[in-house]
Write a structure and sequence with these properties.
By secondary structure, this protein is α+β, with helices and mostly antiparallel strands. The protein is built from 6 helices and 6 strands. The protein has a 6-stranded mixed sheet.
Length: 140
């Protein structure tokens, strides 16, 4: 079994700070997502875990294949999987469908805006995740 390393970016910290505030259920779903992916990075997390359409702005913007999986009915996690030993899972953020531009009707402008933000991210190991999220919340 290969080793899995999770990485996060400032966009992750920003979206997590907003959506995880007082949302224990969502925090538990993220923990479960990470456990599933740590055990098997290619395993699907529920029936909604899929790649973005290759023609969609988010898929075009990222150098790795972009995936998304529902954490709740309205909130998805956006991530990519690359490399081996260790396998790197980059966590881009958690988003409501309307904020991602993937609601009942696609909002291509919103998707392009989010894609542009995802494209310019820098990456850190996720062991700092909670500390950075708390620092981000305090700044607001």
């Amino acid at each position: 079994m290969s080793k899995v390393k999770f990485q996060i970016c400032p966009l992750w910290n920003e979206t997590a700070a907003v959506l995880l505030l007082n949302n224990k259920k969502l925090a538990e779903r993220i923990k479960l997502f990470r456990e599933v992916k740590a055990a098997n990075p290619t395993a699907r997390f529920g029936g909604s875990d899929s790649m973005f359409n290759g023609k969609a702005p988010i898929a075009k913007a990222l150098s790795e294949r972009a995936w998304h999986a529902h954490l709740t009915q309205d909130i998805s996690i956006v991530y990519s999987v690359s490399s081996r030993d260790p396998t790197i899972i980059k966590l881009y953020g958690i988003f409501r469908h309307k904020d991602l531009g993937t609601g009942d009707t696609d909002n291509i402008r919103k998707q392009q805006s989010v894609a542009d933000r995802m494209k310019g991210q820098t990456w850190n190991d996720s062991v700092l995740e909670n500390k950075k999220r708390r620092a981000y919340v305090r700044k607001k």
